[in-house]
TrEMBL record:
Provenance organism: Staphylococcus massiliensis S46
Protein name in UniProt: Peptidase M20 dimerisation domain-containing protein
Similarity comment text for this entry: Belongs to the peptidase M20 family.
Any one Pfam family match given in the protein's UniProt record, by short name: Peptidase_M20
Entry keyword set: Hydrolase
Gene3D superfamilies in the record: 3.30.70.360, Zn peptidases
Amino acid sequence: MMTTLDKLFKALEDREHMMIDIRRHLHEHPELSFEEEETGAYIKDFYKGKDVTMTHPVEGQHALIVDIEGGKPGKTIALRADFDALPIQEETDLPFKSKNDGVMHACGHDVHTANLMALADALIEIKDELPGTIRIVHQHAEEVVPGGAKSVMASKALDNVDEIYGIHVAPNAPPGVVAYTKGYAFAGSSVFTLKLQGRGGHAATPHRANDALIAGTKFVDRAQTIVSRHIDPKASGVVTIGSFHAPGGFNAIQNEVTIKGTIRYLKDELGQSMYEQLQQIVKGIEDSYGVEAKLDFQFGYPVLYNHPDETESVV
C-alpha cells in the first residue's frame, strides 16, 4: 500500500516534463523586479480551474498566494519561491534563451517557480490525504532592496503560517544533492549609495579644488578596514564596492563622485555595527577633504535563520 509520501513522489515524477516546460517558458520570458506582469499572469493562469483559493496579497503587484486545503486538520505550512529576473544580457545558444533584451533569469528564479508550481500541482492531486493547509507563496521582486517579501509580510498573508520553507538552486553542488544548514544560513544584505560633492578645477591647479575623486578613493580604501580591523575574526561580514562613477575628462579635477556598494553579514546586529562604521568613515572623509557627503543606506533582507528542529524534519 502506498503511503501519502509515496503518492507525492509518484505525482512529482509524473510532472517532470511539466516542470521542465514551465522552467523553459519562464526562462524565455524574464521580467525585472516589480515589472513581472506577464509572469504573474502566467502563474495565476496555471492555477485557474484547480481546487485552490488564490489571493493577491499586495495591491498593484504580482505576488500570488495559493491555499491548498487538506482533508485533515493540521498546521499551515507555507512553501515559497521568487519569480523576478535580473538586468543581464543572456549570451547563450540555448533554444529557450531569453527573448527580452537585457533581462535574464540568471539567479534561478525560473527553476524555483517551476519547482513550486509542479509541487503544488502534485499536492492538489493528493490534497484529501494532507493535514492542514499548504500555502503556496509566489513572491515578486526578490532581487531589489527593499524587496517584495516585506510587502507580502506586511499584508499579513503569513500571519497564521506555522512553518515556511524555501529552496535556492546551487549550480556549484552536484546534481541530486540537497545542501542545508541549521541555524544561520544566508547573509543579511543592505545596499548604500554615497554621493560626494567637491569643487572641480583644472588639472594644473589642484590647490584650488576639492577633489571628490580622491575623497572617493579614500572612502573605498577605508571601507575595507571595517571587516579587517573592526569585526571579530570569528564573525562574518563583507563590504563590497560595486560601482564608482566620476564622469569627466583627463585634464579636469572631478567635483562629483557616486559610489554604490553592499554590506553582508550573518548577524543582524553586525549589520547595524557595519552601517555605523560606514557613517563614521563618511564623516571623516567630509572633514579631511572638504567635500559634502550624502550616504543613502537601505537595510535589506535580514539574516536567514533555519530553525534546527524544522530543518531536521526536512532532511
